[in-house]
Design a protein that fits this description.
Layout: H1 2-16, E1 34-40, H2 44-53, E2 61-64, H3 72-75, H4 80-83, E3 92-93, E4 110-111, H5 133-141, H6 149-159, E5 160-162, E6 179-183, H7 189-200, E7 204-205, E8 216-218, E9 221-222, E10 224-225, E11 228-229, H8 232-236, E12 246-249, E13 253-260, E14 265-273, E15 276-288, H9 291-301, E16 304-305, H10 307-313, E17 319-320, E18 331-339, H11 355-364, E19 378-382, E20 388-394, E21 402-409, E22 416-419, E23 430-433, H12 439-457, H13 460-463, E24 468-469, H14 485-494, E25 496-498, E26 524-526, H15 541-559
Parallel strand pairs: 1-2, 1-15, 2-12, 5-6, 7-8, 15-26, 16-17
Antiparallel strand pairs: 3-4, 6-9, 8-19, 10-11, 13-14, 14-15, 18-21, 18-24, 18-25, 19-20, 20-21, 22-23
Helix pairs in contact: 2-15, 6-15, 12-14
Bound molecules: flavin-adenine dinucleotide (FAD).
Residues 40-45, 64-67, 112-116, 119-121, 123-127, 252-254, 289-292, 294, 298, 500-501, 528-529, 539-542, 544 line the site of flavin-adenine dinucleotide.
Length: 560
Amino acid sequence: IVEELFKSIYGQYLQQGIPFRENTYLGNKPILREYDFIIVGAGPGGSVVANRLSEQSNWSVLLLEAGQDESIYTDIPVAAEYLESTDYNWGYTAEPAKNGCFNYANNRCPWPKGKGMGGSSILNGMFYTRGKKEDYDTISEMGNFGWAYKDVLPYFLKAENNSIQEYQNSSLHSQTGNLHVERVRYHSPLVDKFIEAGGELGLQKNIDYTVNPENGISRLQATSRNGRRVSASKAYIQSVKNRQNLHVAIFCRVTKILIDPLSKKTIGVEFVKKGKNRRVFAKKEVILSAGPINSPQLLMLSGIGPKEHLNNLGIPVIQDLPVGQNLQDHYGTLALEFISNHTGPVINEQTILNPYLFEQWFKYGRGPLTVPSRVDGLGFVRSPSGKEIEIILAPIGQTPGRFNIATLLLQPEARGNVTLKSKNPWHPPIMSYGYYDNITDLEDNVFALKYSVRLVEETQAFKNIAAKLSPMPHPKCNHLLFKSDDYWICISKHLTHTYHHQCSTCRMGDVVNNKLQVIGIQGLRVVDSSIFPHIPSAHLYSPTIMVGEKAADMIRSHWS
Ligand SMILES: Cc1cc2nc3c(=O)[nH]c(=O)nc-3n(C[C@H](O)[C@H](O)[C@H](O)COP(=O)(O)OP(=O)(O)OC[C@H]3O[C@@H](n4cnc5c(N)ncnc54)[C@H](O)[C@@H]3O)c2cc1C
């Protein structure tokens, strides 16, 4: 019976898995029937693994990406926020929030996710941060051997290529990796005011926040090179595009991971390209790097997830695991508006197309278009509850004489989850998150908003340019006393902003082991931001690159 079943599964796969020629990412390489490794998703997790595994010339590697290639538009740092309304975004929306996202229709916060070579690193804010030593030590203390700070630091360094002058001789930075990091190449005088003001309030000026993001303030370290975005695909795929053993195929939407239900061995994946269903097989492993929303979705569609949920949808259960649970994220307020007598450049939908600014950027890698999402300046303060909060300066306003400060809770209490709407792979999953359901998050954000106002209104640095909070109250909060705690609570709930660091939906310890192998399944790993069991105090691009570097080493040593 087992043999018959085996034949019926594999026989069908083998018939359908005939080779076909493809218009692939680079050149016209055919997608073969079988590879040693199949990687799903060309985001930061998948791009790194594809590069590192294909260093081994006797291993064949296929990287399947649902989206398209990058373009000149994704190269422009300041354009990041505009890319969210293009096909580079999966365009997800979270479920209605009870205590946040009030400025959006039905209280549903948008959850953009990058779709294309580089994943979310083609539309992210390009902040380079790594988090705190304690973040990784906590991950290790949760039982994940090999993930303490001392274990992950070498991989951060392996990845980094930091050209910032003052870090050239630091043992905590490196200049040899693939991920370029530099200072923003347009220096607004407002950033200096921000740093001065932080100093006046007792923050340490010009800290290296990648090493210790605490009680300090400094300019941004950006994942760019000569003023151009460095996506994960730029950093890890473009330079190895001519490797014969690496095939990269775009517009390939994976709909299922093929797993033999008896042996629980991963066989390959099913995907759709140009409307056709196809299958491709893995000799060694399938590596799932589809990101924090699509990785759990694909696992559940393939029979790996909470038993009851899968049973309710009629999906045969292969492995009962808490996939999609425990979603974590960073959120806060975007953004308070301040006015001053400083007149600097203005970037909005009209001025971004200004030919002079474009030429400055294109020819020389300079000017305001090099400023990622208009941001240059981060501060780190501790709330009365003892948690770290990030304060973000956008010195370039959307209207003249204005600038913005945003808040970000680095260790929020809120949690969420990803579940399936149906067993149809084309239906987006259901995403929920408890914005401000926990009073500590709300109190911490109110503290951060009041701190941001103090930073501007109570320091000489900003007084010198007559800077102050815009006196126009938010129209939905103008029934409350301006600047009172109740006003700030109202602002928090209306101007809720997620920083798109969703993670932990395939968390290490519950869904994958410390080698990132899916528990109970052979030949299947998850390598992306969904594996963090506990959210680092960082924007997650560089931590996910670190995960990719570390995973590639583990995979290599497993198979050698
Ligand atoms: C708007 C925004 C701003 C951000 N700003 C910053 C920042 O300033 N600094 C920072 O450090 N981090 C930032 N982040 C977070 C960071 O970019 C992400 O944490 C990181 O990209 C996660 O990497 P990943 O590999 O887990 O997944 P992703 O980057 O989401 O990549 C997943 C890839 O898989 C592909 N994929 C998904 N499903 C399928 C499928 N079924 N078949 C084939 N391919 C599939 C996707 O198209 C995508 O290319 C931001 C994120 C966003 C969205």
